[in-house]
Design brief:
126 residues, mainly alpha, two-stranded antiparallel ribbon, 7 helices, 52% helix
Amino acid sequence: MARDSGVVAVPMRRLMLATGDMPEEAPLFQMERKGKRGGRVPMTHVALVAGLKELAGQVGLDPARYAGHSLRRGGTTTALRLQVDWLYIELQGEWKSNCYERYCELDDEQRLTLPAAFAEAAKALS
């Protein structure tokens, strides 16, 4: 997948569909609750990493080379691009510090926002 393709959800949806019997229209990162209560619950880190490793093995990649940490950076960046509030990013990612803020990467369009604002302000002052 291209790094700034803007189509982040498509491969992630495929990953989630491949790791369980999730309906196509269901939200990402959930799993069936086991036990009497049933239903769907947010996917645990353990389940996500296990699914990632399983899929890596199925396509001939070494599962030992894949872990969940890189998904934290990508998830944080994606949430930022979707304009998710920082508090939700911190809570959902179970961050113990504010280091998640350093994981966010801006794409070219986002990087041009500040210079464009400066240009508009300069025009207003002229």
